[in-house]
Design goal:
This protein has about 475 residues and is of the alpha/beta class. The chain contains 12 helices and 15 strands. It has helices spanning about 35-45, 75-80, 90-110, 150-160, 215-235, 255-265, 305-315, 335-340, 370-385, 395-400, 425-435, 450; strands spanning about 1-5, 10-15, 25-30, 50-55, 115-120, 145-150, 170, 185-190, 195-205, 240-250, 280-285, 295-300, 325, 345-350, 455-460. The strands form 2 sheets. The protein has an 8-stranded mixed β-sheet with strand order 13-12-14-11-9-10-8-15, sandwiched between helices. A 7-stranded mixed β-sheet has the order 1-7-3-4-5-6-2, with helices on one face. Helix 1 links the parallel strand 3 (about 25-30) and strand 4. Helix 5 (about 215-235) packs across helix 9. The chain is elongated, with a radius of gyration of 24 Å.
Length: about 475
């Protein structure tokens, strides 16, 4: 909280993988924006024991439109068009230089002995986006305590300091690294098929989340939709030709770690592109991880051949607003792990509810009217995919993947730790993990034990 020149509480959250303050700490606030090498000399020897505002204050625009956004018909038409050819990724040198400069600045804060580094949230109006600050690898260099505070309060402190009025802050940050169990895991369950039981259709969502909310919208909502799709398939009594498997992934927010390790263990190593036998038997993967907005269509990930199939599947849901296919790629979630090894992996187009990865990521922000039809759509899609004569068409990449090693630009995986045990013996633990703050509403996942084994198939060793 702020103590002087006027006392008021601060809305703030520590960044992940950053240390605490080792008790209550009180000190002066100082604005110290370091953007060039010369700035280090400006502040050297002046920051010990102080709360450093290390980011220049940004503009806070007025909101004349709602923070959530429903795609208009015109926007969906534009999204469905082939995007213009880009001029390449570029900027790689600047990215590396910026990373090195950020590391140097972090070490400078540590060497100076700052009390904490304060940062601005990129949200406003009470919405705070908070992710990682330090490294989860204990072998990496240390970082200072880091806190994201509301932009309005950050601006108040900056304006006070600019008037040459001292500001005193006091914080107690209790961050601890729990290394009693370094095994991370995925939760996997399946409904067995019949004449094509060795072929697999997968649906999934990640169930980990950032720490400022309960994870309800990112991504317990996606997990719940996929679990409900499995439940509907089970209670419908439909005879499935292919096996339908659900994967609820751990470590997605740290770099798709859970799904990457699952792919590496079962289908292919994306570095060497050495394929496993299960690769040829895989029909397709469908992912939900864009909050609780209404499903409007599918990103094809460059797979033009699958478009007619999706058009047919979407036909019953056009009156619910699902009518768009786009050849474009979308990133940032677990379908990319499948796409990286030439397997059909898809993410859905959703309206933007603007509440993921924030302190508003809670159950009250889940739009149940959007989620109910979403589960029905997923059930319909999974009902048709396991029954079709052939699985989803693959991109041309998958035809040549077995012949050529593909250079990897993805993050290095952590060492896998494989563990398996009966879901029945760990039912309460798993239902608690998946519910992510939603209580018993999601324990219907236990019904999957009737259909088949639910195993903890784990993978990344995380610290």
């Amino acid at each position: 909280m702020a103590l002087t020149p006027r006392a008021y509480p601060l809305i703030g959250y520590p960044k992940a993988w950053t240390p605490g303050t080792n008790g209550q700490v009180t000190g002066e606030a100082v604005l110290a924006v370091i953007s060039t090498e010369r700035d280090f000399d400006t502040f050297r020897g002046k920051l010990r024991g102080k709360f450093v505002l290390g980011t220049a204050m940004r503009d806070v625009p007025a909101h004349f439109d709602a923070p959530g956004h429903r795609y208009t018909e015109a926007e969906l038409v534009e999204l469905s068009k082939q995007p213009d050819a880009g001029g390449g990724r570029g900027g790689r040198g600047n990215f590396q230089a910026n990373q090195e400069f950020a590391k140097k600045k972090t070490q400078f804060w540590v060497d100076e002995g700052v009390a904490a580094v304060l940062d601005i949230s990129r949200g406003d109006g009470g919405t705070l986006f908070v992710q990682g600050g330090g490294s989860r690898d204990p072998k990496d260099p240390p970082s200072p305590a880091q806190v994201v505070i509301a932009v309005e309060q950050y601006g108040r402190i900056v304006r006070t300091l600019e008037k040459k009025i001292p500001v005193t802050l006091s914080m107690k940050i209790d961050n601890r690294f729990d290394d009693t169990d370094l095994n991370a895991f995925n939760i996997v369950g399946e409904l067995p098929g019949s004449d094509k039981a060795d072929e697999v259709v997968m649906i999934g969502a990640h169930f980990d989340s950032w720490h400022t909310g309960t994870g309800a919208t990112d991504n317990a909502a996606g997990s719940a939709v996929m679990m409900e799709a499995m439940r509907l398939l089970k209670v419908s009594g439909v005879k499935l030709r292919r096996t339908v498997r659900i994967g609820l992934w751990g470590g997605e927010e740290q770099g798709l770690l859970g799904s990457k390790e699952y792919i590496k263990a079962h289908y292919a190593d994306p570095v060497t592109m050495v394929l496993k036998p299960e690769h040829a038997k895989f029909a397709g993967y469908f992912n939900v991880d864009n909050g609780t907005g209404l499903i409007r269509g599918v990103y094809l990930q460059g797979n033009e051949a699958v478009a007619p199939i999706f058009q047919q599947w979407m036909e019953p849901f056009k009156n619910l607003g699902m009518n768009t296919l786009t050849i474009r790629n979308t990133g940032g979630t677990d379908h990319l792990s499948y796409d990286a090894v030439g397997l059909p992996g898809f993410q859905f187009i959703q309206d933007d509810t603007r509440r993921t990865e924030t302190r508003s990521c809670r159950a009250s922000r889940c739009r149940s009217r959007s989620r109910r039809p979403a589960a029905a759509r997923r059930r319909s899609r999974k009902k048709k995919e396991p029954q079709s004569a052939e699985g989803s068409p693959r991109k041309f990449f998958s035809a040549i993947a077995a012949c050529f090693a593909v250079p990897s630009y993805r993050r290095e995986y952590l060492s896998p730790h494989a563990r398996s045990f009966s879901f029945r013996s760990r039912a309460s633990a798993c239902s608690s993990i998946v519910s992510t703050g939603h209580g018993n509403r999601y324990v219907q996942f236990l019904s999957l034990t009737v259909a088949g084994s639910l195993t903890r198939s784990g993978h990344p060793k995380a610290s």
